[in-house]
Amino acid sequence: MNYALIMCGGSGSRFWPKSRKAYPKQFLKPLGPHTMIQSTFSRISNLIPVENIYVVTNNNYVDIIRQQLPDLIEDNIILEPMQKETATCIGYSAVKLLKKDPEAVMIVLPSDHHIEDEKEFISTLQQALLIAENNKALITIGVKPTRPETAYGYIQVGKKIDGHWPIDTHKVKRFTEKPNKEKAIEFIKDGRYLWNSGIFIWKASYLLKQYKKHLPDMYESMKRIRDGLGTDEEESIIEGEYRKIEGISIDYGVLEKSKDVYVIKCNFKWDDIGNWTAMERYMEKDEWGNQVKGKFIHMDSRDCIICGENRLIAAIGVNDLIVVDTEDVLLLCRRERDQDIKELLNRLSEHVEFKEFI
Predict the structure, then answer these.
(1) pTM beyond 0.70, yes or no
(2) Which residues pair with 262 in a beta bridge?
(3) How far apart are CA 86 and CA 64, in angstroms?
(4) Which CATH superfamily is domain 2-271 in?
(5) CB-hemisphere CA count at 13 Å for 205?
(6) Which of 11, 81, 94, 261 could be a cystine partner for 204, CB 3.0 to 4.6 Å?
(7) Contact 23, 17 (CB under 8 A)
(8) What angle, rounded to 10 degrees, do the helices at 204-214 and 85-100 form?
(9) pLDDT tens digits, one per residue of 302-344
């Protein structure tokens, strides 16, 4: 049977100060009337029945998830005792699904991505499920780059696979994580590179075989967790194994090492909306090139992204700024330095008096 796993543990740090550890990006409404996790849940429920949709998260977000996803079955919330990167949360979730269904096929989805053309999205996943069900394959969805983006991972496509598939599917030749601007430009000119969407499809049993090969220590932890499920010691076993595990992403830990990774070149519009400059793709510009959400008045100010709440934002003679005003934080940032917001948060964490703002 087919299942969906929505990963909902990230903090969305590059979208600070709107996104906070206590209320991260996936629970916000940067576009439209629904939060990002609500849109993700609604989208996948057109393919996977609600009873087979799971969310993996931590205790900090359970109440928000219950509030925002009232149709999610309570028992389908998978709780991690601590964050240990995506290979851990996906492996743990795979073990739980296999306990229920030894033939489980998983669609793994981030909770905070923007996708348009949902009909094409569903068609792409249907093809991925068919390939995964009948082959020893780890499948990812690739997106044709439209700009030299340095915040995304890239996939170099290899040989096209056999079969009359309506959507092009290739062996993955190589993964490259977040290149610099020059390298990203090279990738686009090359024409054989796709963005890595972070959407994955595979049989849960085959995924764990790949863990056994490439992440043997984590595989042994997952075996012990599997044996503890449903026992009186389940909670303590899971927490104990999590403490032993060295966290690693699924990309580094498995996908970059496996020879059985395939990529489907999607035809739907996908966006991570991972930082403030991404918002410029969805906000209208005024005659000065400013993009505004909230109350704003200016004199001779150009090419700014303004995001306010209740207070009026006024500017005189400023250019190329990101201004984000919240109830307790005002962010001023040069547009070309929005990737440094994560580093700013690291500095904030070093000051006890500022930790409440993270």
Answers:
(1) yes
(2) 139, 171
(3) 21
(4) Spore Coat Polysaccharide Biosynthesis Protein SpsA; Chain A (3.90.550.10)
(5) 14
(6) 94
(7) no
(8) 140
(9) 999 999 989 999 999 999 999 999 999 999 999 999 989 999 9
Distance CA 279, CA 276 (A): 6
Helix (H, G, I), strand (E, B) or coil at 12: coil
Domain-by-domain residue ranges, the chain? Answer: 2-271, 277-357
What mean pLDDT do residues 14-28 have? 94
Query: pLDDT at position 355, please?
Result: 87
DSSP SS3 for 5: strand
Query: Which residues, other chains included, contact 26 with Cβ-Cβ below 8 Å and sequence gap of 6+?
Result: 8, 10, 12, 35, 36, 37, 40, 111, 112
Phi-psi region of 273 (alpha: psi -120 to 50; beta: other; left: phi over 0): left
| Separation of alpha carbons 78 and 318, rounded Å | 47
Q: pLDDT for 80-135, tens place per residue?
A: 999 999 999 999 999 999 999 999 999 999 999 999 999 999 999 999 999 999 88
Question: Is residue 260 within 8 Å of residue 170, measured between CB atoms?
Answer: no
Query: Which tokens hold the place of 16?
Result: 């600070």
Token pair of 232, please? 């009186």
Residues 199, 41 contacting (CB under 8 angstroms): no
Alpha helices in the chain (DSSP H): 36-44, 62-68, 85-100, 118-134, 181-190, 204-214, 216-228, 234-244, 250, 341-349
317, burial (CB in 10 Å: exposed 0-12, middle 13-18, buried 19+): exposed
